[in-house]
Amino acid sequence: MNPRLIRKLSLTAVLSLSVTAFAACSSGSKSNGGAEEAAPTQSDYTKAVELVNASTDGTEPLYAELNAGFVLSWKSRTGQTVTVRQETGASSEQEQAIIKGDSKADVVTLGIGTDIDAIQTAGVVGEGWQQRYDYNSSPFYTAVAFVVRSGNPKGILEWEDVVKDGVAIVTANPSAYSDARWYYAAPWAYSLDANPDDQEKAKAFVTDFHNRVKTLAKSDADAQKAFLDGNEGDVWVTTEQKALQLAESAGKGKIEIVVPSVTLTVEPIVSVVDRNADDKGIREVANAYTDYLFTEEAQTSAAKFGFRSRFASVAEQNAGKFPEVSLLTVDDNLTGWEDLQQALFSDSGLFKQLPAK
User: How many CA atoms, within 13 angstroms, populate the side-chain half-sphere of residue 179?
Assistant: First the structure.
């Protein structure tokens, strides 16, 4: 296992290499609502348990393989039978379902960290959840990319090409579909990278981007349908991962994938849902599942389904699949999601000031 990717354990726990250490928690801290990452008690491995994992829509094939891999891994370690029930939906819908108690997910992997922050504010996930793992608890990642029609008739290669006159964009609406915030954050990040600290130029560039949007869909699935089946637009702005999945399925021979030389990293975020896992007495299994996402086996599965790996060894094996580009991040290049949310997506943010589509 890559030492950069294991749970941030105490030295004693790492050295013990016991099953309990594999699933051990980092030191818990209380949230505003009282959820706490308590130290797990060892499970009764003779009893079968069910784990509920909630993830964003479009990840069903990936998690089918990851869930099966975890079940086998945990069985071989402990002898315990675990079944994983998968729930998928838009990131913001998953957030609300967990907060309201409609979903009893024990683990959640969402597209935007602020959605898990909202779950923490409601007291269902403990404070410090994003520091439990390296990379701010993002097990694998992708990038904002362009899907163009075969032959790339508009010659779209870079962000500057997307905002040229005569280019029609299809993308998802960040107000209706929180994962789509990445698609408006990306041109913002690109402009600030080219013109550091010049937010006026960034606002103008995002405005130009929005003005080229022909179809602002309710979700990525609707945007894909509009572009591929409805023949709308010249470019679909989405993630590299979704583009790769489309290129290997319904879009084969019909589309090309363009990853611009400078673009924004998209980082799905994972956390144990502390209150739910503790209420069910399956904290150890829930921790072990999130640990599993940071193993080479899980990283290999993620790369198979179009995500970039945190493991150098897995990245090297898939080098031909993922072009080398400059990948900006929200934390390193945009001072974090809190500032980005305020600048772009709050009630006073830029998106609310743009023309309705």
Answer: 33
